[in-house]
Amino acid sequence: MKVRTSESLIRLTVRSVLGLSLIIPVFGIIGCRSDATSTPSRPVIGICFETLQTEFWVAGLKALKDACAANGYDTIESVANGDANRQLQHTKNMVTRGVAGIILVPIDGRSCGPMIRVANSAKIPIVLFNRPAEVEHVHFVAVTAENEQLSKETTEYLIQQIEATRKSVKAMVLVGDLGDQNAIERRNGFLAAIAQPANEQRPQIDVVAEVPTEWNLEKARAGVTNALQAHPDIGLIFCSSDCLLPGIVSALQSAGKYYPTGDPRHVLLGGFDGDTTAYQLLKEGYLDATGVQNVFLEAELAVQAITDQRAGKDVPNRLADPGFVIHSGNLAARSKEMWGATVAP
Q: Which of 36, 114, 167, 277 has the smallest CB count inside 10 Å?
């Protein structure tokens, strides 16, 4: 029964991604309009993704297309499938087509430098969606979540849940790809929260396992399994992306540690993103909290940044999505703001 539960979570994640993909006409090449009713008089925004391998990116692409349509833009899309050279060529093709702006999800903060320079040379506004650049002497606008602060707030919520019952707790953190600034900031937020000194109300938090995942589900599963074998008394887990939650669930089940909130054997679990799996686990009582990125707000900010730059307005180089922590106490009130809840089957 436990194995079936884990597998059903993985199937749910895959089904959600594939289901969303079916309603989004996305191609790995340039030149396909997303709106069959588009006209030549409407400006076009090029949306250049590096991957669609997670629910967040699929939901992000749909939100961007919806925001573009609502603001009078047609779109063309490309997916580079993790290939920086291909993404650079996609960017060049968009510039050649004379797009009004480019929204880019880069592979990492460094590889996007040439793409930004291509757009800058053509004087085409370029916005980085949910992943900032680490490149100097270029101009871009980055729309990102407040990763560090949101991770800190989520972890602090988890700690509050054990203040009355435990003097100390051993913790594990799953870290994403450290070539991704988002992963670094989320790890830093977790560490900042647990670094607060213990007192009569606050338990001592000891990080006994830091699991590198590179955003890979199988690496997450294996890492959590090994950590639980080495430290079977781990009582708190923070995951830097909800896309890794099925791996954690599987490892907890195999270790005989998968129990809902309220059970004294429950391992506190927190995440980041707000995907469909997180929503289901919150409803079922196995996930205690997750930091939700507002993908709809980020899409609106990205499109508005292009519109403002085309109008000659000054736009800050970073536009922030504060997000929010969702948990059982506010799930009913805020689930409509949780993008994973809006696409959950």
A: 36
Q: How confident is the model at residue 328 (pLDDT cuts 50, 70, 90)?
A: very high
DSSP state of 109: T
Taking the CB of residue 180, how many other CB atoms lie within 10 A of it?
21
* Cα–Cα distance for residue pair 9/123, rounded to 1 Å: 45
Residue with tokens 């690496």: 219
Interatomic CA distance for residues 174 and 52, integer angstroms? 21
- Over the stretch 133-155, which tens digit does the pLDDT of each residue have? 888 899 999 999 999 999 999 99
For domain 2-145+294-322, the CATH superfamily is Response regulator (3.40.50.2300)
Strand pairing of 204-212 and 318-321?
unpaired
251 touches 221 (CB < 8 A): yes
3-state DSSP assignment of residue 320: strand
Encoding tokens for residue 83? 């290939």
Distance, in Å, from the CA atom of 342 to the CA atom of 333, rounded to the nearest integer, reads 13
